[in-house]
Structures are given as C-alpha cells and as structure tokens.
Amino acid sequence: EDQVTQSPEALRLQEGESSSLNCSYTVSGLRGLFWYRQDPGKGPEFLFTLYSAGEEKEKERLKATLTKKESFLHITAPKPEDSATYLCAVQVDSNYQLIWGAGTKLIIKP
Amino acid sequence: ETGVTQSPTHLIKTRGQQVTLRCSSQSGHNTVSWYQQALGQGPQFIFQYYREEENGRGNFPPRFSGLQFPNYSSELNVNALELDDSALYLCASSLNGEQPQHFGDGTRLSIL
After folding, report:
1. Pairing of the two strands B19-24 and B74-78
2. N or C: which end of chain B has fewer CB within 10 A?
3. Residue B20: its pLDDT value, please?
4. From the list B4, B99, B103, which residue is nearest A32 (CB)?
5. Which chain A residue is nearest to residue B57, measuring alpha carbons?
6. Hey, which bits of B19-106 come out as E strands?
7. Residues of A with CB below 8 A from B29's CB?
C-alpha cells in the first residue's frame, strides 16, 4: 500500500536554530514529491516539486532534497514567520492522485 | 490572476442534512480536485473533475458527489451528513490535471 509518513509531528525551535523535517514514502513508483506549507485557517501553499533522487530545490531559508526513500526539508536560520504546518505529498506513476502525509507543525520562537 | 476561492468559509449542519460547497478555480485552470482534511491530518482526495467530467475518485461513499460547470467552477455535495464529515474541505485547481495544484482556503464544516 502506498504510504507517506512525516516526522516529527511537531518541532519547536528557537529563532536561528536550523533543523530538518522528514518525509518518508513507500510507493510503487514515484512520479513526483511535493512540499506544501499550511498556515492555520488557510489552504496549503505550494513550495517545491522534486522528481528524482538527488534533486534539490531551494527557496529563501528552505531547501528540499530527495532520495529513493525519503525527502528532507531543511530550514536554515528560521524566523518566527516560518511557523506553519509543512505537508509532504507524493504522486505515484499509476495514479494522478496525491497521497499526503499528516504534516509537521513547526513553531519558531523569537 | 485570480486565485482559488471557496464559499462559504464556515458552515454548521446537523446529522442527516445535506450540504453544497462551492469553488471557483484559478483563472485559466480546467481541473478541480476536492479534498477532506480532518484536524491534524493531511488532505484526503475525494474526487477530481476535468472539463466537466469526473476524472477519478478516492475512497469516499456515493453520498459525496460533485459537479463542474462550463466556467470550470465546481460544487461538492454531501448527503445524509454524519458526525465524521466534520472537517476542512479544500478545493484545488490546475491546468489539465498537472501538478502543482493551487488550493483555496477551504470550507470548515461542522456537524452537530
């Protein structure tokens, strides 16, 4: 069964304290992996798409990487405005649907 | 460029009632997907519409149904509401079903 697991469930950091969020997946064939950010009361906001192992994407303080079994979202020197829930989703070769993880709630304290 | 808009933002219903949620897709997008997101969980795919036809369905019962109109806006209808239907309902649009999708801010449905 295709599955996406995110860890940790929640992460509290001090402003400026770098860390990584994990998204591990078990799928029959990966077509693409997507990272989204979701603020309270809002819909998910697209961040990155990764297609193949070894690929990396960067945007401001965020960097997403992909291996054959997992993806990491690295956050460097985070600021309080980076606080949000970060969601990971995968699209498998045989399907157009997205399979989502439960998300990591990131809290950055000033 | 107009983004995805959903209405209403909040809704309270009782068990057994019926509800209709609405979504206007982003300008130029012809594909709409609907998701259910329970508190603390990721979105669960309900179904997708492409050019007014259902283009795929997730593991939801037939009491969840939908429509897409010629202007590519969409409706989600849920009959015989159950307590477990309480959730945030998200609509996402894209061009020709391609990723990434762009999401609206959802309708928060509460069932009493």
Report:
1. antiparallel
2. N
3. 98
4. B99
5. A97
6. 19-24, 31-37, 44-50, 53-57, 64-68, 74-78, 87-94, 102-103
7. none
Residue A95, phi then psi, degrees to nearest 5: -150, 150
CA atoms of B78 and B83, how far apart (whole Å) = 12
pLDDT in the model for residue A81: 97
Which carries the bigger pLDDT value, residue A30 or residue A75? A75
**Across residues B45-49, what is the average pLDDT?**
94
| SS3 label, residue B85 | helix
How many Å apart are CA B23 and CA A77, to the nearest integer? 37
Mean predicted confidence (pLDDT) in B13-35? 95
Q: Would you call A97 and B45 a contact, using CB atoms and an 8 Å cutoff?
A: yes
Considering only CB atoms, A96 lies closest to which of B4, B97, B105, namely B97
- B86 band by pLDDT with thresholds 50, 70 and 90: very high
CB-based contacts of A54, cutoff 8 Å, min separation 6: A66, A67
Under 8 Å CB-to-CB from A46, ≥6 apart: which residues? A34, A36, B100, B101, B102
Q: Is the pLDDT reported for residue A94 higher than 70? A: no
Hey, is A82 helix, strand or coil? helix
Chain B residues whose CB is inside 8 A of the A100 CB are 42-44
Tokens found for residue B87? 């959730």
Question: Do you know the residue count of chain A?
Answer: 110
Q: State residue B98's pLDDT score.
A: 84
Cβ B45–A101 below 8 Å, yes or no? Answer: no
